[in-house]
Amino acid sequence: xxxxxxxxxxxxxxxxxxxxxxxxxxxxxxxxxxxxxxxxxxxxxxxxxxxxxxxxxxxxxxxxxxxxxxxxxxxxxxxxxxxxxxxxxxxxxxxxxxxxxxxxxxxxxxxxxxxxxxxxxxxxxxxxxxxxxxxxxxxxxxxxxxxxxxxxxxxxxxxxxxxxxxxxxxxxxxxxxxxxxxxxxxxxxxxxxxxxxxxxxxxxxxxxxxxxxxxxxxxxxxxxxxxxxxxxxxxxxxxxxxxxxxxxxxxxxxxxxxxxxxxxxxxxxxxxxxxxxxxxxxxxxxxxxxxxxxxxxxxxxxxxxxxxxxxxxxxxxxxxxxxxxxxxxxxxxxxxxxxxxxxxxxxxxxxxxxxxxxxxxxxxxxxxxxxxxxxxxxxxxxxxxxxxxxxxxxxxxxxxxxxxxxxxxxxxxxxxxxxxxxxxxxxxxxxxxxxxxxxxxxxxxxxxxxxxxxxxxxx
Length: 459
Prior knowledge:
This protein is of the alpha/beta class and 459 residues long. The chain is built from 16 helices and nine strands. 43% of the residues lie in helices and 12% in strands. Strand 2, helix 10 and strand 3 form a beta-alpha-beta unit.
């Protein structure tokens, strides 16, 4: 793909590769369905099915293949006819609505297609091995410009899911699912603990839902679900859950579990904030998503989410949102992550918040996750966070005691700080010094005088 002049950058290369993978995986799944159901009919017109244009290694190539893909295949899949009962057709159409063919060299397209044909996604070993390759591709997306926002490190998603502990039958939602990491780990977690029969598996797949606004991560998440043995990934939807007024969400929309890493640092589309009560109106995406999470949880529902430091110490609307969180939910745990967890995409410090809806917060446990000794300046692309680093927290989780990393804070202390949740590690010598504006001004003036004396001495 790097030889093709039409593909510019890793994000485009990944998008190009994944629409091809999607069609190959979809075709392999259809082969299985045809064996089970002799009346099965593909939603894709016959000439556009992978087996009929891509499977033959000596088939179309060069200019003929490029023109077929660009002028025939893509328009046909974008305009696919969808009937109410055909969720497969809707999945294909959703995937291709905002997907593009970037490659311009038909000979190179044929070479890529032939490589993909080496994988049989109906073979468990092939599928699982390719699943590892796919995860590596998603991880590489972190350094692909703005596309890095779609990927949450897998050790982090696994830890959050394990601590929230979704059960079979729980309705699980990620309202900003990116490439689907939290939901894939939910599938794995519930399968390992609760799924015993085909009926259990069907219940699980129908209970795990993700919504994603942007086309590339939606395509990636849909393909990710298929790679993780979800036959019909119709629960991965394109959409913007912030664009709907909060009052329009009914009790039937409420869920048992939310696991999510909402986008932060960005602004929502004009007017989106008007979908929320006036005291919660802001253009910061993470804050609006937090309000949405609280609203969508059932009483007794659990959440494990990622939020930036700015939410913890921010004031104004952020204070109102945090007050609402603490009054309507038990925010029982905040894990303060080391720096660089989301490098190279985002350098902001982040936190994991775990809460249960249905009762006010009385105390919050903080765990200040230390940076490994060999990493002085935080995680990097080549030295990312590892699952083993979460093991001490797992051991502490069910038998909590204060130690050099953990301490608890009462709700009275939080209220006294005007709902500022930015507490330092009280058991490790960290402290917060609060200065008045007059004291700050005096310190600045003293430092300025010292600087002037140094300059005069140099002159």
